[in-house]
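During the no-cost extension, the postdoctoral fellow (Dr. R.K.) reprocessed legacy sequence entries with the updated structure-token encoder. One reprocessed record is reproduced below for audit purposes.
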Amino acid sequence: MKNINNIIGNELDTFERKFAANVKGSNLLLDRIMRFIIRRKGKQMRPMFVLLSAKIAGGITEGTYRAASLIELLHTATLVHDDVVDNAMVRRNFFSINALWKNKIAVLVGDYLLAKGLLLSVDNEDYKILQITSRAVKEISEGELLQMEKARKLDISEDVYFEIIKAKTASLLSAACAAGAYSSAGDNAETERFRLFGEKVGIAFQIKDDLFDYGADKIGKPTGIDIKEKKMTLPLIYTLQHADRETRRKIIYIIKNKSTDRRKVAEVINLVQQSGGIGYAAGKMKEYQQEAIQILPHYPDTPARQAMEELVNYVIEREY
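Re-encoded structure tokens follow.
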């Protein structure tokens, strides 16, 4: 990530100042929660994609900073709401909003962040960028609901899996790249090219998360979480599609009835590893990684393009 910081480090600092100003609360409780959110911010990957997309497409503008803030506001709002839905007490090694201030306040905070994002765009007449990001929020909701529907029967095919992750995970990253490009070039063809680029990176990003759950990398956190939550990931789908009837029935029984039993979950992980599911998913991840990178030579070989390639590779090679 060192090269990325060399290329857009100053712009990231500017973004963080502008983002902090954009989320500032109007009362003491809200302001305290907003400061907490800012302190626990993650790697800022989505703002990086916005800024680098704009830099490659033509140059970073004030609209680019607003686009990055909008993406981060929407992303943070979805995380706050997700923690309420999942009853999650921890996020990024910090207590979640709902753990500290309870569900009612957390829901309202998520709504506040969404509203701040909408107003930021409307007040500055960034209607195209608002359209791009609003479509992403719609797709995230649709993907979550489709996953919930399919999880009941554990019958997700590979095609449906990709439909879900394209909506759930890839849509916001594709929106980040598209919004960044549009803020710079204002061109629909360029915007669509970057949207497709972000979608491919987002799919690879999610498959990487799938692999973490099976101990495919040393990540320093418990594996088997997706199995316990009955989430159908690509390594598991591959295993179920290629297992004999007895093994398939055994895996489905454990997921449906024994997903809280550590030994049984470990048994499923072992079966997935033996089946070749890990290698298959890793291959698919690299396919999407390469398809994304192959879009970039459409643009001059600048430091910004090189930094974008580094960021894509980081998404695949990260350890957590």
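The chain has 14 helices and two strands. The first helix runs from residue 2 to 23. The remaining legacy entries will be reprocessed before the final report is submitted.
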